[in-house]
Design brief:
By secondary structure, the chain is of the alpha+beta class. The protein contains four helices and 15 strands. The strands form four sheets. Strands 1, 2, 4, 5, 6, 8, 9, 10 and 11 form a nine-stranded antiparallel β-sheet that branches. Strands 3-7 form a two-stranded parallel sheet. A two-stranded antiparallel ribbon has the order 12-13. The relative contact order is 0.12.
Length: 229
Amino acid sequence: MQEQKERSRADAQKQVGDWTTLLDEPAVTFIGYDLASIEDAQVIKYRTVTTKKGEEYQIVLNKTPFYAEGGGQVGDTGWLYFEDEGVPVLDTKKENDLIIHYVKQLPKNIYAKVRGEIDKRKRQLTENNHSATHLMQAALREVLGGHIQQKGSLNNEGYLRFDFSHFQKMSEEEIAKVELIVNQRIRQNIPLEEARSIPIEEARQAGATMLFGEKYGDQVRMYVLLIKF
């Protein structure tokens, strides 16, 4: 809650400029499920954001490997290279289906072809913690009951936070049991099956868990753990 209040105050102090459009592209292509870098992207648009700390910039590419913050997982960081000039990406967020790269500076040649590289170590550590939240939910449901549902989460490279509601405080024994189950599943290195871009109703019928507060489109990506809890 405090985190949300601080973010709201920071947003209220921003002045967001209009987009400068360079290319008329109908959509942005995300390639980050398969690739950690791209060689030939182009800037679609960019804008200036003024904060108390000074000016920042937001860049939209026609295609990108950078994952935008969502599902409790923080956005990717990394680098955008315009010819020989490197521009650090400080964060990645989504707005109206646009994947927006947050940077502190614009390149000298905004029209140049863009080579983009995510911070692969940070992404891997963050994905590990994101996977752990799903293992934790399954373990909590096993130990405490099927009423357990995720009410929020935060997954970054350093730690995870998993929010849920229960009738009472968990006992030390229950906590230890959940930890044991999750650690056992991690050590098993459970294989996954991915179903990409399937109708959301089909995913529901297959038993997919829809997380609290998440907005889903008509097409979703579903992972299946090949083990029974």
